[in-house]
Structure formats: structure tokens, C-alpha cells
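To start, an entry.
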Amino acid sequence: MTPDQQTQLEAAAFRRLLKHLDSRKDVQNIELMNTAGFCRNCLSKWMMAEAQLLNITMDYDQAREQVYGMPYSEWKEKHQLPATPEQMAVFEALQAKKEND
């Protein structure tokens, strides 16, 4: 496999991941964080960091729009539910564990 082919495959897989996440708006970011250790916002931060490494101008709002497929404020209003006390307890326990590792 050539480096260009590798890049094309990685880009296609990432687009597929974004499409999958878009089809699962019912899955909340807190659930992703608690289960997988990353969420849509993490993907946005990673995209922004990679843009900076490549000298591409992209701020956090632009990165989130790439990941969410719309402005974050719109997505949040339409799809984000408040985290339950149980979800927050799991999240906080995982964060504490990370800090102690």
C-alpha cells in the first residue's frame, strides 16, 4: 500500500465514523466518554490539533461543525440531553481514576 492509499483509506474510515455517529444522535457524548473514553468533542479537538500541525486555519467551532455536521449550538439544542446523575458519577469516577494513574 502506498502512503497516498493509506491516507485515502484513513480519511474514508474517518468519514464513515462521522456518518455513523451522525446516524446515532441518540448516543450522547457522556455515554461515549464513559464507554470509549472519547466523544464527538474529542474528535473535534483532535481535528483542530491536526489542522494546526498542517498549518491549516481551523478553530474549535469550525472543527465541531465538521464533526457534528452543523453548528454545535444547533446540534446541542436538537439532540443533547442533560447527563443523568448516574452518567455523571461514572464520568467523574473515570476522571478521578485517570488523574490517579
Remarks:
- The helical segments are 3-23, 29-36, 40-53, 60-68, 72-79, 85-100.
- The chain has a mean pLDDT of 95.
- The chain has one domain: 3-28+38-82.
- The first helix runs from residue 3 to 23.
